[in-house]
Amino acid sequence: MAELRKSVGVKVELVEELVKQHFGPEFTSKIAWSFARGKYIPSTLPRRVAVPQKLLGLRIGWKTVGEFSDNIGFRLELWDPSCLRQAEALVEEYNKKTDGKKLELYPFYLHWPARGGRSAA
Fold first, then answer.
1. 23 Ramachandran zone, left/alpha/beta (phi>0; psi -120 to 50)
2. Which of 54, 71, 81, 95 is the most exposed place for a label (fewest CB within 10 A)?
3. Is 114 part of a structural domain of the chain?
């Protein structure tokens, strides 16, 4: 996947800088899910947009709000609807600062828990 990212011209440092700027200083894009370890691990490439979850000052896990994908163009799949404005600003600024492959935003809320009233049945 690293070769593919190099070939499409993704600017890794710019992605990480914009994630911190638009989502917050504790957020990162450089973590990936390790199936072998069953947890998130550091990555050299942008994979997931996440913030550490803390309990009494200790990191106990990660809250992920989206994922970078390059299998159908370079895109940010957003999972948390409350972060839509930050994601839109990140995509817009990334596309202004790069001449190569453009970043696209895909809001993807299908698995997000429904809020609101009871079912009609």
1. alpha
2. 71
3. no
